[in-house]
Design goal:
481 residues, alpha/beta, Urease, subunit C, domain 1, TIM Barrel, Dna Ligase, domain 1, nine-stranded mixed beta sheet, eight-stranded parallel beta sheet, globular, binds zinc ion, binds copper (II) ion
Length: 481
């Protein structure tokens, strides 16, 4: 017996949540062929992994990488052990939309001049023609559909507009989308009532596609927004994922005890999942409604003032002799980091057994939130090793097997013969995030090897030239449907 790649003597954490065990792992072509004592197997490439963890590559379930994937290298993700990204979150997907100029918030998150694909199929085709280093599972964004079909996004969609959005959504599902996302908090979708979202979600029912939502309110109205999200998904009969769960603003600190209780209760009636990023600061476009909730605001990019990326909004206001609202108005369009969550809430949400990990990283920001480069190593280094908040096999499960199950990604997220060879090898004693709020573009420590579909994409911190990523199609677009 011979294989292409053999990883010897590693401590395997297989992604199912099972305890670590000692094993060799063989890969042929795109898939894992054997796992166990493989002493007699020969291979073209052998990796010695004693003292190291061998795990499924991480699945970043909450990203805005739609546009970044077209640049292919995906270094911020590959360098932290991510092998699959779920893009199209928060109501924003790159397709289907052709748009010139400055789009309404938060569509600017995908970078300048991003919207160039009139159909979802054309975007998928572009990604498959020139693949990225990582796999991509794609959501269709509600706000993207609104901007594509409505003359005025400041009101609920008419029946005709819902039908037009529905046609685009059906095309996207047929082209491979794995779900639909909303960002009801944002100007582009705030005017959409529950009925508009339910009408669109009904197209997903029975396809296995999921509904991911950046809720209408993650601050004072977080409980009401959870209730709205549960009801919306229940009415349409689709699985729900609460995006980047958090309780924003000092007066809401501690409320995650209650929100997790509500999620627990809803889970008895319907499928509900959630994700989180391991930081007390959020990041999105620079929006007046968030400035007031934050104890500190850092500017991440500004179209008229690119030189001020990385500076505190308060300092810029002082410099200009105006208040923060005035400074923000002059900086826009712009992005920001907002310190507005409670560490105890972040820890409680990470520790909740059904929580997945999603970076929410913003690849086009001049001075990005450190979550872009640091999310997964931060959970494994800071929260697992340093704080002991959860076990390593549990953390890996939330980053891999659980994520694949929730997004219905077939043969991903677990190490077993027959599964795709998406693999990360790391040192549990060393793994750590090095990206900080001051110096955010820093690769993590402790990642030895990253394999995507059987090909090595990163070795000892050096990215290779391999770009083996696949578009992971939803069931509606698969032959095995
Ligand atoms: Zn969001
Ligand atoms: Cu997001």
């Amino acid at each position: 017996m011979s294989s292409d790649l053999l990883i010897r003597n590693g401590t395997v954490i297989d992604g199912t949540g099972a305890l670590p065990f000692r094993a060799d792992l063989a890969v042929s072509g795109h898939r894992i062929t054997a796992l166990g004592d493989l002493g007699s197997v020969a291979a073209d490439c052998e990796i010695e992994a004693s003292g190291r963890i061998v795990a499924p590559g991480f699945i970043d379930v909450h990203t805005h990488d739609d546009h970044a994937l077209l640049n292919r290298s995906m270094t911020p993700k590959v360098s932290q052990g991510v092998t699959t990204v779920v893009a199209g979150n928060c109501g924003v997907s790159l397709a289907p939309l052709v748009f010139d100029g400055e789009p309404p918030a938060p569509l600017g998150l995908l970078g300048e001049g991003a919207y160039r694909f009139a159909t979802f199929g054309a975007y998928v085709e572009a990604l498959e023609k020139r693949p990225a280093a990582v796999n991509a599972a794609l959501l269709v964004g509600h706000s993207t559909l609104r901007v594509a079909t409505m003359s005025d996004i400041g009101r609920p969609a008419s029946d005709g507009e819902i039908a037009a959005m529905g046609r685009l959504l059906s095309e996207a599902l047929a082209s491979g989308a794995v779900g639909f996302s909303t960002g009801l908090f944002y100007p582009a979708a705030r005017a959409a009532p529950m009925a508009e979202v339910v009408a669109l979600l009904e197209i997903l029912a029975g396809t296995g596609a999921v509904y991911a939502t950046h809720m209408r309110d993650e601050a004072d109205g977080v409980e009401e927004s959870l209730a709205e999200s549960f009801e919306t998904a229940r009415r349409a009969g689709v699985p729900l994922i609460i995006s980047h769960h958090k309780c924003m603003g000092r007066r809401n600190f501690g409320r995650s005890s209650r929100t997790l209780e509500l999620i627990d209760r809803a889970r008895r009636e319907q499928p509900v999942g959630l994700d989180v990023y391991p930081y007390t600061a959020g990041s999105t476009e620079l929006l007046p409604e968030l400035i007031g909730l934050a104890s500190r605001v850092i500017v991440t990019w500004s179209r008229p003032h690119p030189e001020l990326a990385g500076r505190d909004l308060a300092d810029i206001a002082t410099l200009w002799g105006v208040d923060e609202a005035g400074a923000a108005a002059r900086l826009k369009p712009a992005g920001a980091i907002y310190f507005m969550m409670d560490e105890a809430d972040v820890q409680r949400i990470i520790a909740y057994p059904h929580t997945m990990i999603g970076s929410d990283g913003l690849a086009h920001d001049e001075h990005p939130h450190p979550r872009l480069w640091g999310t997964f190593p931060r959970v494994l280094g800071h929260y697992v090793r340093e704080l002991g908040l959860l076990s390593i096999e549990d953390a890996v499960h939330r980053m891999t097997g659980l994520a694949a199950a929730q997004f219905r990604l077939a043969d991903r997220g677990v190490l077993r013969p027959g599964a795709f060879a998406d693999i990360v090898i790391f040192d549990a004693a060393v793994i750590a995030d090095r990206a900080t709020f001051e110096v955010p573009k820093q690769p993590a420590a402790g990642i030895d090897l990253v394999v995507v579909n059987g090909e090595i994409v990163c070795r000892d911190g050096q990215q290779t030239s391999a770009r083996p990523g696949q578009v992971l199609r939803g069931r509606a677009a698969r032959q095995d449907a």
